[in-house]
Amino acid sequence: VLDIEAVVDHLKLDRFVLFAGIGMGDRAVRYAVRHPERVAALLLWNATASDPAITIRLYADVARSSWDLFIDTVAQNFGFDAPELEVQRGREASTQQDFLTKTEALKDKGVWDLLPEVRVPTLVMATRGRTVSVEADAREIASLIPSSRLVLFDTQGTHTSLYRTD
Question: Which of 13, 26, 102, 136 is 20 to 30 A (C-alpha) from 3?
């Protein structure tokens, strides 16, 4: 949340649409609750309100033992169109120690209790059939956020499938 605040302040944004992809919904929700005057709308894509790092922590052992293998695995398995570009971005975005520290810090930081406090228009989007929990979480998140709307997509994949969907 502090990172989002710093970027928004640096860019001198008064109001903006906040998009949160997979694994980032908790931070977007926290920011929207703290700064509703700045968030024109909140878009949550395949978000969960549970422990935000639970999926990433599944890879923690791989990240701990081989950072290169971890970066390659993430790039190859999360539906990116250009895995080699994602490998480069992954290496530029974080170090092994930063990732492991962040993963531990996020442990048990769910935001279920904050969802009713979201006061900005919210679109909750999820890929139908991706996993049972993604669709179920999306339905529950949408039911708990006032003035939210739920849209389920029939496409497969993760990030890039959103942009190819009419």
Answer: 136
